[in-house]
Amino acid sequence: MPTRFLHLALASLMLLAASATSAEPDRYVPARPADAGLYQALGERAGIDAVVAGMLKRSAANPRIADKFKGIKLKGLQGQITDQLCELTGGPCHYEGNSMKDAHEDLALTMAHFNALVEDLQQALDEQGVPFRTQNRLLALLAPMYRDVLKSPR
Ligand code: HEM
After folding, report:
1. Phi and psi at residue 75, in whole multiples of 5°?
2. pLDDT at 146 over 50
3. What is the CATH number of the domain that holds 52?
4. For position 33, what pLDDT does the model report?
5. CA 66, CA 6: separation in Å to the nearest integer?
6. Closest Cα to residue 117, out of 81, 75, 80, 71?
């Protein structure tokens, strides 16, 4: 192969690799902010708080999961989840609640419960005008948590 052509081929391969990297979904890496700017894109703590309030309002009235929220003080839970998401998305907050495993252990949650909550979250994000791409960046951080939250895989 002529050298010039080889260089061209190599250059396009490198370009491809670079674009593949930037097109990859953002992943949560606890040791460093996984997704710079997500906290700001969500409207900082106030924006996150509004989304969590909307999610909990829906979940507490959602026939698929409402029983899980019976007797729970929603305002307190809202503050805990907001702190957690604020920290997770790179904001200046510190979540001091229980581990996800301890917090959900007695709730006997399944994937169906998890999906119902995520749908409530998506509706709350829509309601707050959060763009689809930003929604996906948040969901990518939350998805791996199902392992700690669920009692059984189904
Ligand atoms: C990625 C998914 C989830 C996240 C990030 C999350 C986050 C949290 C956080 C931060 C707390 C507070 C823990 C504490 O105060 O120590 C909590 C508690 C709680 N979560 Fe979740 N949660 C998730 C999934 C779910 C699902 C699927 C349900 C039910 C359908 C649920 C229902 C509850 C309830 C009822 C509590 C209160 C438990 C209590 O006070 O005894 N969560 N969650």
Report:
1. -65, -45
2. yes
3. 1.10.490.10
4. 55
5. 62
6. 81
Domain count, the chain: 1
- Taking 80 as the threshold, does the pLDDT of residue 120 lie above it? yes
Find the residues whose C-beta lies inside 6 A of ligand 1: 65, 68-69, 72, 77, 80-81, 84, 97-98, 103-104, 107, 109, 113-114, 117, 142, 145, 149
Question: Is the pLDDT assigned to residue 5 strictly greater than 80?
Answer: no
For 12-52, write each residue's pLDDT tens digit.
444 444 444 444 444 344 444 567 899 999 999 999 999 99
Q: What pLDDT is attached to residue 2?
A: 56
How many Å apart are CA 82 and CA 12, to the nearest integer? 44
Nearest Cα residue to atom 10 of ligand 1:
81
Domain that holds residue 43: 37-149
Q: Which two tokens stand for residue 66?
A: 């409402």
